[in-house]
Amino acid sequence: MSEKERNEYAEGTAVFFPENHVFEIVSGKTYDLTDPYDKAEWEAIEHCPFIAKSRNARDANGNLIIDGPISTPKKPTRNGVAELYVDHPGLDTQRRVSHKQLVHKACSFVYDDPRGVDGQINMARILGKDMRNQPTADVIDFLIRVAEKDPKKIINLYTGDDIALRLVFIDALDKKVIQIKNKMYLYGDNIMLGATDEAVINWMQNPKNQKVLELIKRDTYPEYYASDEK
Fold this sequence. Notes:
Largest sheet: 3 strands, antiparallel
Order of helices and strands: HHEEHHHHHEEEHHH
Mean pLDDT: 87
Distance between the termini: 83 Å
Number of helices: 10
Strand content: 5-15%
Strand order of the largest sheet: 3-4-5
Shape: elongated
Low-confidence stretches: none
């Protein structure tokens, strides 16, 4: 112990336990983290493998720490290593409320798209679904279902500043201006843009690649550049 810790212990403002101290933890035990003793005891046991951070906590392999991996007839399993879990009163409710708020925000972006149906169709295309010949209601229904499942994906699309580039990327793929070879997006025969959609968008955003990006746009939308060439 440092001199400061010894002084705090003597003054009763700090609590310390010996390494061989035995804690008896039972289901339903509560800790008031504003109380020095409770706080010290919790800090001493919180990393115990027999205590899960929550009822649905999972290990690095995605298995439930309390229930263990999913059991099958061919591979029966036992329960996980943890026997107790931490219950935060009101936390689960707050999480559900926060999720519903995100869903509401995402749905509002869809309904209030400033570009109307064209904007909604473009968003569907960015999400990998070409609905240009589909009824408007189907387009909105698709976007709402995405918003309900992953509201942050919709929010990020509407609040991001790369929508125009994503549309260029999609159109260039449709028109074979950008092609996939050996799991790599290519422009021309040897200009590698990236292995994933996000990598391509990052490549397009790089100022060093603006000249090549302009060539991609010209090949993708030749009708828009025809008047410049006359």
